[in-house]
Amino acid sequence: MSQFEPDAPPRATARYEAEPAPPNAGWILAATMLASSLAFIDGSVTNVALPSIGRDLDGGTAGLQWIVNAYLLPLSALLLVGGAAGDHFGRRRVLVIGTALFAVASLLCAIAPSLPLLLAARALQGVGAALLMPNSLGILGSAFKGESRGRAVGTWASAGAVASAVGPPLGGWLVGAAGWRAIFLINVPVALAAIAIAWRYVEESAEGEQPLDVPGAILATLALGVLTWSLTLWSSHHGASPQVWAGLGMGLVLLCVFVWVEHRRDGNAMMPLAMFASRPFVGLTLLTFLLYGALGGLLVLLPYLLIVGGNYTPLQAGLALLPFSLVIGAASRLMGRTTERIGPRLPLTIGPIVTGLGFLLLVRVDPAASYWTSVLPGMLVIAVGMAGAVAPLTTAVLSSVDGRHTGTASGFNSAIARTGGLIATALAGAVIAQSGVALTGAFRSAAVLAATLAGASGCIAFFTMAADRTGNADGAT
Fold first, then answer.
1. What is the Cα–Cα distance from 231 to 241, expressed in whole angstroms?
2. Number of alpha carbons in the 13 Å side-chain half-sphere of residue 110
3. 369-397 confidence digits (pLDDT tens)
4. By Cβ atoms counted within 10 A, which residue in 400, 414, 439, 474 is the most buried?
5. Residue 368 CB: number of other CB atoms within 10 A?
6. E strand or H helix at 85
């Protein structure tokens, strides 16, 4: 999965009146950054441990896919519900509950004696992350005002980038030094610190009594679960059995029922269909799904290829991904300023196309060759391209819908990004099931597919967004 999802709101383009920072501003930031770092790190650290977990728990191809997707599935399906629950019951309360749930689930992951129990614990982690992620940002939005809010969100986003960058090498080191179970145990002290600080220093905040969309959440989870199961079965068995076709059909039916229910719930829906009256919003949703699907597949498959095909240690595989995180973290701030001047259309067109060129460079990957000439060039080009897309994406999403739907649109776009990674991981079994020369060949085919998806997402941005410097798009409702 991608650890650079479009969660953070855009940098402000208008001058704010000076607003004092709230009391205990530093502690509020610490609580939200510690809580969100759990999801950021876990989203990147597990990939380098997949071969070790597979050997220890006798996990086959489908089992390895589900180690990632058991976490992504509830996270994708419940992100919007997590944000709505914070608005309804109180953001601090839901943040604490989500963080505690994540800590308990992490302990269960660390002691899981079998793959099914590990997958159940990973799903529980995903539920906890879906509760804590939107509310860590929601707390900042309610506690800080004016310029101090922009600084707080910028600090929060920077901490997320650092956590994501640290995740793969930290996970690789822990797997090599103490075993894969240690990557889950490190979550516990971080979660306890976040809970203690939030309980002591964060004031409760809520927005009203809008009912939660429980039917929508259940249908979204069932639909994504059935589709993911079907695609995982398809890719791991290299063919479409009657079970696969039945699952795909049932998943599509559940998606249709979900859309019907959301239409009936109108303003109380977790996904208000009125947002889709905006052509740019539809285009940005497709862009996000394709681009982050391509990226999510890479972040699962490349470490696996290097460890299994190139005899990299988990630490070396984690370090191989580090330049990607560092380039995005360093360049995203510059792209945020550039987007303010020229608007998001060109960055969202050029960035994904450059990302696609990076995927094409990975067609040259030979896990037995030098990392510096085989892997690094493609990784750097992908990072540069993604840096051009990460910062402008949320700006474009929020400006493509009216003010009533900005929060929901941002959360929905983040959920779509994770769903793209979910589907990509479900299809990755066709690569993971291979070995030797066939593994490298399958990875190269996946790189070509990822390049195609990334290039298509850039074209979608060009044809669905207006060339407006402020980022407001034609067709916004």
1. 11
2. 18
3. 899 999 999 999 998 998 888 778 866 77
4. 400
5. 9
6. helix 61-89
DSSP 172-217: HHHHHHH-TTHHHHTHHHHHHHHHHHHHHHPPP-----PPP-HHHH
SS3 168: helix
Q: Which residues contact 321 (CB under 8 A, 6 or more apart)?
A: 44, 168, 169, 299, 302, 303, 379
- Residue 309 tokens read as 């095909």
Q: Percentage helix, strand, coil, to 5, in the chain? A: 80, 0, 20
Closest CA to 40 of 293, 299, 426: 299
Q: What is the pLDDT of residue 474?
A: 45
- DSSP for 414-465, please give it: HHHHHHHHHHHHHHTHHHHT--THHHHHHHHHHHHHHHHHHHHHHHHHHHHS
* Residue position matching structure tokens 């303010």: 340
Residue from 322, 311, 477, 291 nearest 392 by CA: 291
Q: Which amino acid is at 353?
A: I
Contact indicator for 405, 330 with CB cutoff of 8 Å:
no
Q: Which two tokens stand for residue 372?
A: 């510096």
User: One-letter amino acid identity for 367?
Assistant: P
Residue 377 tokens read as 């060039």
Contact 379, 323 (CB under 8 A): yes
Distances in whole angstroms, Cα of residue 407 to Cα of each of 34, 86, 349: 22, 13, 24
**139 in Cβ contact with 91 (< 8 Å):** yes
Please tell me whether residue 203 adopts helix, strand or coil conformation.
coil
| Inter-residue contact 95 to 198 (CB < 8 Å) | yes
CA atoms within 13 A on the CB side of 66: 24
Sign of torsion over alpha carbons 35, 39, 41, 42 = positive
Q: Residue 128: CA atoms inside 13 Å, Cβ hemisphere, count? A: 29
Kindly give, in sequence order, each residue whose CB lies less than 8 Å from that of residue 158, ignoring residues fewer than 6 positions away.
Answer: 329
* Residue in this structure with the two tokens 């919003």, named with its chain if needed: 281
> What are 371's two structure tokens?
């990392």
pTM of structure: 0.79
pLDDT in tens, 325-352: 788 777 766 776 677 677 788 889 999 9
**Quick one: CA dihedral 65, 71, 72, 73, positive or negative?**
positive
What single DSSP character describes residue 392? H
Asked whether 374 and 469 are in contact (CB, 8 A), the reply is no
Spatial distance between the Cα atoms of 353 and 347, rounded to a whole number of angstroms:
10
Cβ neighbours of residue 466 closer than 8 Å, sequence gap 6 or more? 280, 345, 472, 473, 474
Q: Residue 169: which of 326, 328, 384, 365 has the closest Cα?
A: 326
